[in-house]
Structures are given as C-alpha cells and as structure tokens.
Specification:
The protein is of the alpha+beta class. It has three domains: about 100 residues, Type I PLP-dependent aspartate aminotransferase-like (Major domain) (Aspartate Aminotransferase, domain 2), CATH 3.40.640; about 50 residues, no CATH class; about 200 residues, no CATH class. The protein contains eleven helices and eleven strands. The chain has a four-stranded mixed β-sheet with strand order 1-2-3-4. The chain has a four-stranded antiparallel β-sheet with strand order 8-9-11-10, with helices on one face. Strand 1, helix 2 and strand 2 form a beta-alpha-beta unit. Helix 6 runs parallel beside helix 11. The chain is globular, with a radius of gyration of 25 Å. Keywords: Methyltransferase, Pyridoxal phosphate, Transferase. It comes from Ceratobasidium theobromae. This is Methyltransferase type 11. GO terms for molecular function: methyltransferase activity. It holds the Pfam family Aminotran_5.
Amino acid sequence: MLDSLSESSNASTSKSLMALTGLSNLTNYKVPLHEIIPVAQARGVYTILDAAALAPTTRISLRKTPVDSMAVSFYKMFGFPTGVGALVARKKFLDILDRPWFAGGAVDLVQVPGVIATPAECISSRFEVRTFAAVTKPKSYDILWLQEGTINYLTFPAVIAGINSLSKYIDMLPLRLSSLYHYLYNQLSLLRYPDTETPTVQILTGAPSLPSATPPHGYVLSFLVLNKKGEIVPLSHIEALAARKGRDNLPTIAPTFKSTPKHPNPIPHVLRTSNTSSSTAVYEKPVVDLGRTERTIALRTGCACNPGGAAALLGIESYMQLVQPGATQRSLELVVGRELGVIRVSLGWVSDWSDVVAFIRFVKGIQEVVG
C-alpha cells in the first residue's frame, strides 16, 4: 500500500480517495495508520477510515490520526441502538464531494416528467440550480446536503449515554482485553485430543503480543474446529452446539466434509450456476435437531462480511479464480468440498474472565461430540 502511494504522482488534477480499515474484523490486523496517512497526505490523496471495529476498544484522536473522514458504528461500540452510526468528516473534505443524486428531505419539488428539482427551503439558499442531469453541490458547506429522510432522533439519548459510559472505561480496555485475549489464544492453542494429540482448533489469526496498553492488534479470534483426523468440522455443526444450553443429550455429529485439497479441482463450470453438482465434491448439510435449544454462546461463522479476509485466511484464493457470473456460495463450496468461512469470537467492553473461561470449556466439550 505504501509502495503504491509512493509511486503515485501528486501532480494530477484529479482527486483520489483511499479507504482504510483501522482494524480487520476477521484477521485482527491493525493497519499502521501513522505510516500510511502522512504519505497519502503528501500525495494529495484523501482518506476515509472505517473505524467500526477499532472504535469500540480504542480511543481515536483525529489530531494524531488526521484522516479526512471516519465512519463508526454505535451498535458496535456499546450495543445499542442498532442501525445508528456516524460519519465524522472535515469540512474541507465535504466541500470537494460531488453528489449525483438526491432523495427525500432534500428537495421541495420534483418535476415529473422532467429534469427540474427544487431544493428544500431550509437549504435552497445554499444550492445553485440543480436538475436530474446535473445535480450540483452547495455553494458552501452545509451538513443538510448529506442528510435525507427523518433523523432517528428517538435513539439520540441512548447514543449520548453510551458514549459517556464508554469514555469512562475505554482507556483501560486495551490492557484488560489484551490480557483476556492472550489467555484465550494460548488456552485454545493447547487443546489436544487425548488419544491422538492432534489439535482441537486451527487458529487463523496471528499470535498475540504480550498484554499491553497499546497492542498492535485487536481482540478478534478467527479459527476452525478440527476432529481427531485433522479434518475441519463444518461450521453449521458448531452453530448447532453453540445454540445448546448444555452438552447433555447432544447428538454425536460426524464431520461430512473432506479436507480441502491443495489445488482446486479443474471444473470451473460448477461455479456458473447454483444448481449444478459434482460427483467429486462431498457436501451434506448436517441434520441436527435444534428443538428446545437455548442460546448461551454467541459466536459468528462465515466470512463476517469480509470475503477477502476470509479467502486469505482459508487459503482459497485459487478457487476464487474459478468463480463465474451467477455463482453462489453453495456452488463454490461444492468445488472446495466443505462449508466455507471461519468461526469468530471477539472481546469487548463487557467481556470478562468468566466469558473466556466459559468459551474455553465450550470448545473442550466439542471434543467429546465431534472427536
């Protein structure tokens, strides 16, 4: 990334925007923002920071991290309200944006049929004449230009309360959470099947640093569960076990997927439609009775809305080259030969030692079911 920035020229009159992820929600990698942002600024490249995974456990200073804009999720920061976040942006950055559309709340009258749109009265003085063919931005910065529809004002008190509460603890979170994460990582790494000494889990995220107030990583752990033979246990099996209140009366579940071969099967046509099949792929959805279940373990399986990170962690980039238009996840799984994705757990503001110990016990219990 730095090499690409260094090679780019700042002599061009066109504007560029670089989107950065502060912390990967899957690989647990923290981007070295202090190295990238100065280079981007020197090259005239604007920056937007996705801080959704970073902000819940890290105090972010826009003086020390002078990005042009930043997106955060209040739901990820303190759990409520859902669907509410914020775009924090510098005025000079908003001034350069061109918006080719408009929607409810930003217009007073729309000509139908026609191309004329009259801005809403509250911001009309800020706008030049605008039409469907050429929607112009305000003559000067006005936040209403970016705001459409009805504001979710009923949630504002919750946002304020959440920020005030999190602010009291956020400076203490890195040291506490890095201690929890270090213990969780090491304990899972030590788990073995007693009779074969094969590992119970395959951890995909990097090894943590020693507990620190400024760790170079986050608190996200991505892994897979293995059976005694070293084969990956399907994610749907783990979901079923996590939904159970206890291990009593759990059915014994045998993995139904072969290990992923080192090289993809040369049958790219399988990836063209969702209803093709292949005799070389073993794919069976497990039949598990989930009646009368009670969820006690919260974890996430799949790609966690990060398909690039998941493909890298799973080492299936070569299979991605086979994907054709119209392909589905099911069709890709048929070629790879197993369910795709990872198991992800993360630590946050309310996590404590009891949560970590309970999860380690849960994984130990999986040994008896899938071993």
